[in-house]
Amino acid sequence: MRRARTASLVMMVAAVVLAGGHAPADSVREVQNQIAGLLAHPVLQGAQVGALAVSLYRGDEIYRANAERPLIPASNMKLVTVATAMELLGPASVCPAGVGASADETLTGLSARILKPSDNELADALLLALPQAAGRPDLTPPALCAETWGERGLYLYGTQWHDGSGLSRQDMMSAEVIVGLLRAMDASPHRDSFLQALPLAGVDGTLRTRMCDGAARGRVRAKTGTLTGVCALSGYATTLDGERLVFALVANGYSCEIVRVRRIFDQICHALVTFEREELRAEQAAGH
Question: Which residues contact 227 (CB under 8 A, 6 or more apart)?
Fold first, then answer.
């Protein structure tokens, strides 16, 4: 019975992914099936999961499931806090008064201290300081974030802020919004500073002990998120062929130990990193 239910779920997810577009190449279909199978694991039975992976090379969706549904993002909320600060103030700017470790600490340094170890106190302090630092004391921090990204064509539909850290279980954000934010930062002049502030798989930050031995080591820069019954992982993955992908994975309401959900998310990262696109390889061979 369980096997039939799992097979049915995989087929349903695959149908959602493939609907409304051209039939994907075999390599895309293969990674879609891999991810769908991982998310159909019994440990996620009954959980709410939002997932989205998009190519920065072609702009096409590699995988999508419930991506538009707002979920508790946990510390993935820090991505909005840091990205908004970089867009408004610039990474080379001195931190807002009372937030930095010293009077001359730059936002670049502060961002790494927030994102790599996932510092809740610093993230909350930065969000609260943004309206004054940006010259918009008339706006609340959430209103300032929404305005900042709306002006850049990114509308944070369904997003709810109650802090800058993601500690509140009332925070809500969809995988679609997270990916939109990450794509916007990849196109930003501040891209490099933002990327360097993210944990690197198997190397540092909250990903130091994850994905240490496989292909994803050193190829995934992503922000983790952890609360009781909440696991998130969102960021960038570079395939073995050099194609860059952006992804968001958020799970709410599972009852197993979080390490089991993390393992599934890490396996999804492995699937993304080992994804091969035949036309990209052909272009590389032709010297394009």
Answer: 72, 74, 166, 167, 169
Amino acid in position 9? L
pLDDT for position 281: 61
Expressed as residue numbers, the domain containing 82 is 48-275
Tens digit of each residue's pLDDT (9 = 90 or more) over 77-104: 999 999 999 999 999 999 998 897 788 8
285 within a domain of the structure (yes/no):
no
Residue 16 has a CB neighbour count (10 Å cut-off) of: 14
Q: Provide the domain count of the chain.
A: 1
Cα 123 to Cα 83, 117, 197, distances in angstroms: 11, 11, 13
CA distance 237 to 111: 20
Among candidate residues 244, 246, 201, the one with its CA nearest the CA of residue 220: 201
Q: Within a domain: residue 283?
A: no
Exposure string of 221-240, with b = 16+ CB inside 10 Å and e = fewer, is bbbbbbbebbbbbbbbbbbe
> In whole angstroms, how far apart are CA 219 and each of 76, 244, 246, 264, 284?
19, 9, 12, 17, 19
Among candidate residues 228, 284, 271, 259, the one with its CA nearest the CA of residue 57: 284
Domain annotation covers residue 94: yes
Cα separation, 65 vs 52, whole angstroms:
7
Structural domain includes residue 165: yes
CA distances for 139 relative to 45, 87, 126, 235, 252, angstroms: 41, 16, 15, 28, 31
- Which CATH number goes with the domain that contains 232? 3.40.710.10
* pLDDT confidence band for 8 (50 / 70 / 90): very low
